[in-house]
Amino acid sequence: MSRALIDLLNQYANNPRLEELAVPVRGHDVIRHPMLNKSTAFAAAERIALGLDGLLPYQKNSIEIQAQRSYESMVRKPDPLERYIGLAGLQDRNEHLFYRVLVDNLEEFMPIVYTPTVGLAVQQFSHHFRRARGIWVTPAHRGSIAQVLNNAARGLDVRLLVVTDNESILGIGDQGAGGIAIAIGKLALYCACAGIHPVMALPVSLDVGTDNPTLLEDPLYLGWRHARLRGEDYEALVEEFVAAVHEVLPTAVVQWEDFRKNNALMILDRYRDVVPSFNDDIQGTGAMATAGVMSALRVTESGVAEQRIVIHGAGAAGLGIARQLRAALQATGMTADAARQAMAVLDSRGLLVGQAFREVYKCELAWDEAFEGSLGLDAGHRDLLSVVRAFKPTVLIGTSGQPGAFNEAVVKTMYEHCSRPVILPLSNPTDYTEARPADLMAWTEGQALVATGSPFEPVQYHGKTHRIGQGNNVFVFPGIGLGALAAKASAITDGMINAAVMALAEAVTDAELADGLLFPATSRLRSVSRSVGLAVMEHAVAEGVADPTIAALDVEGRRRHLSDMIWEPYYRRYSAG
Fold it and tell me: From the candidates 12, 38, 186, 234, which is the catalytic residue?
């Protein structure tokens, strides 16, 4: 790209309210650039000024007509993966139109651009590859990762990276280079829900190989065809990457995504103060689930300190949820020991007890044997049903990836001692969910308060319709990113994450709760993300991690500052630059 075009795109990204852009390129160079292309929406005067006369059909369409045409094209495709491919193609051609279609149809298309359909796109990445988006950093780039980032940024003001090493993609595990589809999908939701300008977004795959034999044996596989890098070599590559981000993109916020739990914890703890960053699988999931519990307690009219919580799944998501709920419990004045005893955490082998774990982080989640014994449990009775029977939980959360784990016996046993059980089977995609909402309603006589990790249709039970809220991190991470960018924060603190929790819980309306939703309606994501972003920005100011220029503004000034950052997907006027 020319320097003039880079300057224009940066001007637009940093001033998204601009109504006219002076475009320095002509002809096909205009319509081939996805951020400039308006296709049939170019006015007659624009076509003449930019050398487009005769290069497009005569008729001028508004973006609304174009969106209608694009929507009809997408819904004619019966296969979700084909819809994903169609939307990706639209994004590659015309970013304004792509986001107009997505924003206007969030509830319908979010499951396409993200979970569950994105899981299929990841698995089939090398078989439907059409155009590169983002960057793949491999061990072959060691010593030159800063240059790779420079190649990607090209002088653009990139402010937001979603970075994955592809090892723990949703519930489908190690997917190699195809994991970048997750980063692309997450950034699409940042732009659609929080109004982050697309120019500022960069998806990154740390393609350090794969241990997936299907990929390694596939002649079409596009990734670095080696066994997955481990140990010191892996850590050295991550270290160089973070240093490159700090050097090349010093204002960028990093979201770590779908790393295996030990690497996820290591990277989060080691680098969260080097670059402003957070791990969505740990902190985002913890914030989302805690907000869902807080919403449910508005229905049961009880406090968080009164709850007994079972978390089935002790990976990164389970750890994040446990940490966030523990913080909520201790905020009520509960001691650390009491907060630990208020939560039972199970992994694939059962209830965590003692301190003898290969994964050290599990020690912070485990009960001691004395407390286990006080409930009548022992080493032979640490399965989920035994724990539910003895512990009598009021909240049951699933992050195990074990379909059907919340079976009839488990749920009915919970319901025997809890009249309004809170049940959150959060594993996704859909085939991995711990329970289906229709079964949960049937087993609890319609009394369960339910949210799931994947989308489900409303449930009819005895004449009442129960809407099922999707406990998706999309309610949290766009607002965290927006708030951190608005604050120009030097770090993303635990307090900022907790501010996101409280803002999300408060965003659920009484009418939504009455319909069964524990999370806001998906159609309200854009306003909810703004509320979360405001709360995160204000907490950054309160904690002293915001840029002094932002902290110096009054509250109303900061609100205007954040609002002025939010990009809206409509066409601007063009003149010849």
Answer: 186
CA distances from 401 to 27, 57, 290, 322 (A): 51, 50, 19, 17
Q: Which two tokens stand for residue 504?
A: 């999300």
Q: Is 84 a catalytic residue?
A: no
The CATH code of domain 283-471 reads 3.40.50.720
Q: Which CATH architecture has domain 103-275?
A: 3-Layer(aba) Sandwich (3.40)
* Fold agreement (103-275, 283-471): yes
Report domain extents, the chain.
3-61, 103-275, 283-471, 475-565
Residue 475: both structure tokens together: 């309610």
Which fold is adopted by the domain 3-61? Hemocyanin, N-terminal domain (1.20.1370)
b/e map of 542-557 (b: 16 or more CB within 10 Å)?
ebebbeeebeeeeeee
pLDDT 10s digits, 500-538:
999 999 999 999 999 999 999 989 999 999 999 999 999
Closest CA to 263 of 238, 244, 245: 238
CA atoms of 150 and 353, how far apart (whole Å): 48
Radius of gyration of the chain from Cα atoms? 24
pTM, to two decimals: 0.94
- Give the tens place of pLDDT for each residue, 210-263: 999 999 999 999 999 999 999 999 999 999 999 999 999 999 999 999 999 889
Strand (E) or helix (H) holding 510: helix 510-514
Residue 464: CB atoms within 10 Å = 12
How confident is residue 428, by pLDDT bands cut at 50, 70 and 90?
confident
Catalytic member of 114, 190, 432, 571? 114
Residue 104's pLDDT is: 97
